[in-house]
Design goal:
single chain, mainly alpha, 93 residues
């Protein structure tokens, strides 16, 4: 039977912002160029510094396929959606 609901989407493993952004640069074939800025004081105590999706609910619903890592997921999204459809001018030099 079909399952439906709201499911977390993620790898089930915490990864850094740098890993995510590095994957994005790699997916568009650009050299990694990250500039860090200080976190504004007024949001420091409100910022969520750690996230990790629980895959328990989706696994319990019967999803048993492998989960992409962040690099694979970002590359897939960029190449099959952003570049393919010309969003943000990423497919132009």
């Amino acid at each position: 039977a079909d399952k439906n609901g709201i499911f977390n989407v993620g790898t089930g493993k915490a990864q850094t912002w740098v890993e995510l952004v590095t994957a994005l640069f790699n997916a568009v074939g650009k050299p990694v160029n990250i500039e860090f800025v200080d976190m504004p004081e007024d949001i420091r105590d409100k910022y969520q510094y750690f996230t990790e999706a629980s895959l328990q609910k989706i696994r319990e619903a019967g999803y048993d396929k492998p989960i992409m890592n962040v690099g694979e997921g970002v590359t897939d999204y960029v190449k099959n959606y952003l570049l393919k459809d010309g969003y943000f001018g990423l497919n132009k030099d």
